[in-house]
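Attaching the record inline, Q. Sequence:
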Amino acid sequence: MTILDRHVLGSWLKAFGLIMTALLGLLILVDMQNNLGNFTGSGAGLLEVLYYYLVLIPGNVPLVLQVSVLLSLLYALGQMHRSNEFTAMRAAGLGLLRITRSIWLFGLLLAVGVWYLNDSLIPWSVEQARTSREQMRRSAGVQNKGEGAGGVVAAVGFANPAAGRLWFLNAYDQTSRRGRGVTLGLFDAAKHEVRRIEAKEAYFDRWRKTWVFLDGRELRFDALTGEQLPPVRFVDRIDPEIDDDPELMLLLLKDAADLSLFELERVLAHLNGDGTPRQRRYAVEHERKRSSPIGVLIVVALAVPFAIAGVRVNPAVNMTKSIGLFFVYFLLAKLATMMGTFGILSPVAAAWLPDATMAAVALWVFARLR
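Structure, as predicted:
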């Protein structure tokens, strides 16, 4: 790497490190404002709270990375532009790509790093942070309102069409991991209900990978007439074939954007391409998380020409244009998500449309600048 490359890259990395740290710190402060009261009220120790904030940071990196790259490039390259450094470099016969090649190389390394972390650390961070947060919130609820007040999810429904099972739980207690008011319908291949289990409580036995139903009854229906046969009461009942995981049930109640890449893959494997709007929404989010590393390079492509081009007396003009384009990117992402959810676009097209549009804009700006 030449002296010129080190100078250009160093000028950017100083600003990038400061802005990245500031934005991550701001996100942590916002989280503290929202959750720290619950954490202290839960009886959690200092080490538990510190662990939560340590595992929270990697999951937030994708949220602030693109903004950090954009703002730091606009600042660093804008400073060099105002001091006529780019004028001198171009007068020496250097092209724009040659001047900024160290930035492009580091941007590529960032993209590869995000791609790698998406398949390893970031999903783990998202899941661990959410688990720790929910556990401390449940503990706070129990201490403030008594047993059974923390972590109760009302009205949980879950369908497993492949196995012919349809669940409804009046409530599911995440602390005790028990469902209350449980109804399970079992259907044959023709989608006729053949059995129904009703229980006061039920829990998932993780050793045997099956559900245990407590204090209930089983209803059976005649396969030909659909007539209900006399119910059979039970104190406890185990049916080895009923292996639906309650964690998957709860994942399906969360917004797709809140799930990690691994969780999205698990949900999509369960939905098995059923073509519903919910399945398409998860598929779009999965593809978007897969394509997120490319967003780093697109931000570089947008920021570099806007920081270098234009007048030196008012650099805020170019910064405003770039930030405007960045928000247009997010608007396109929302629009594409909606179109993908309703089946107007395929999940892959919906995920890549914003990136492709911004890449086209970046190429057009580069062509004009050169």
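The chain has a mean pLDDT of 85. Residues 154-255 form a domain with the lipopolysaccharide transport protein A fold fold (CATH 2.60.450).

More tomorrow.
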